Amino acid sequence: MLTRRSEPPLDPKILEEAAEWLMRLSENDLSETERAEWEYWKVSSPERNRAWTRAQLLQSKFGGLPPALAMSALDRPSNPERRAALGKLALLLAAVPAGWGSWKLAQSQQWSADYHTAVGQRRELTLADGSQITLNTDTAIDVLFDTRQRLINLREGEILVQTAPDNAAQPRPFLVSTRQGRMQALGTRFTVREWQLRTQLAVLEGAVQVELADNPQRTPIIVNAGQRTDFSSQAFGLPNPTDRNVGAWTQGMLMADKMRLADFVVELARYRRGFVRCDPAIADLRISGAFPISDTQRSLNMLAQTYPVHVSGHLSGYWVTLSPA
């Protein structure tokens, strides 16, 4: 069976051009001359043709532009809000066909949750029983306290949990659930991070019991203080020592200790809107240091000043590329 080769990434400048044309067409204000320019632009190069094919696919999925990006009232190209919308639209085009579905899922996860954070935001909560929850960037949770349980449903993102004793007449278990399983706190402090197909648990104090969502026959495991593990809905991963910097994000820092640059980029990208790409030529460069997640541009500048890395931005900063200096 033949497998389709993945296409090379499109030039961000061409994606921005496609986003501009898509937005202008949605506003229905093109003159005959401008429409002729658009027709020529579409066929003037293979890359532009690919970019416009993605734009058409995005339109077909929604029947137009996503509402949050429809900027028909902002008809001045210099308007900052319009420039921001163009950047977001270009990023969607970069990810089509998966990008639109992911965008819709993120919106629904965020706005229907009891508590949520935006990209780059952190939030601290004190629950009715005195337990404390810290939400990391781009996180959404539901809270359900009843007579039987104290339940936190982590829809997406990452949380730090500090449980408090339950003063109810009948003590209730403190539970955290994800799509992969359910964790019961045994008087503890721990972090939970929900990935697409796995959950990552790190126990800082006490212990946590874990059971799998789709494998109830599997005996639950106990993860003790100083241990971390990850699991799918079907199987547990092997326990490992907890990274001593696992909760550094609560202090606004991303700690790197001989971390691969490619892995660092993945982590830093969680805290900024847009796309950060690492050139494969420097993906294995090892870096160390403390980097502020509240100012990701400063972190990128620190990289460029300390290591042989060149940082270039496109699409008003929404698309950043790290390449050899």
UniProtKB/TrEMBL annotation:
Chain coiled-coil ranges:
none
Q: Gene3D superfamilies under this entry?
A: 2.60.120.1440
Query: In this protein, which residues make up the domain named FecR N-terminal?
Result: 16-56
> Mind listing the UniProt keywords for this protein, alphabetically?
Kinase, Transferase
State which residue ranges cross the membrane.
Answer: none
**Gene Ontology molecular function, alphabetical:** kinase activity; sigma factor antagonist activity
UniProt protein name: Histidine kinase
What Pfam families does this protein's entry cite? DUF4880 (PF16220), FecR (PF04773)
- Tell me which species this is from: Pseudomonas kribbensis
Q: Give a yes or no for keyword Kinase in this entry.
A: yes
Provide the FecR protein domain boundaries: 114-209
Which residues belong to the signal peptide in this entry? none
